[in-house]
Amino acid sequence: MVVISVPCMNGGRGEASYAKNSDIQVPENLETNKRNIYITKSSPPSVCQAFLEQFQRDFSAFLSLRSEEIVSGGRMFLTFIGRSIADPSSKDCCRLWELLTKALIQLVNEGLVEEADVDSFNLPCYFPCEEEVKSIVREQGSFILDTFESFEVNWDPSDDVNNKSFVFNKDRCGQNVANSIRAVTEPTLASHFGNAVIDPLFARFATLVAEHLAVEKTKHISLVISMTRKQHAQP
User: Fold this and answer.
1) Which tens digits make up the pLDDT trace of 37-48?
2) Is Transferase given among the entry's keywords (predicted)?
């Protein structure tokens, strides 16, 4: 048997932990985003701007690095979750994270999580709209944007795509969504809040998602873009 060691972030709350040393990766100037882990309708403009500016830096750096690997005329396809309108607090991208925040606040009320830990945590991600993506591609300058498409995708990909208004089994869908979000967020959440809260957090999150989907079948917005590497400048 071959044992593979996968590098990961240090857990816990010690001096060498990710939670104590991760300031460089959450956007700055988010002190006013109390009891929220992402943008909400109540977030001040400075919070929305901080998330946007971090995404602009990160996506621009990503394009720059990829441009070094792709030959002139080479193609690159990207797909990621975004939003359909300019408002960064739209339910396209925020509703799911509001429910995860609610689950965390429930744990705060039960004494399982410190409120200060919620206040100091912000998701290290951003869900852009079409114009934000296009603007960064233009300004970075290494690629020509060929096509840009967006699609609605169910929170639960196993749910019936033909049913536009409600889910048939809210509890199953709630658990499926919770599992998918846990798969991508657990390392980050565990490093900040500790491993002990993960199971109760996602149990509560699954229930909140199920209750939401019983009322409204909210969708992800999937962005798909195709770009061509520009010709390299001649020496």
Assistant:
1) 999 998 989 999
2) yes
Residue 12 has pLDDT above 70, yes or no: no
Residue with tokens 């925040």: 101
Tokens of 167: 């889910």
How many Å apart are CA 233 and CA 235, to the nearest integer?
6
Q: Are 30 and 122 in contact (CB under 8 A)?
A: yes
Handedness of CA 164, 167, 211, 34 (dihedral sign): negative
The answer to whether 222 and 151 are in contact (CB under 8 A) is yes
Q: Is the pLDDT of residue 60 over 90?
A: yes
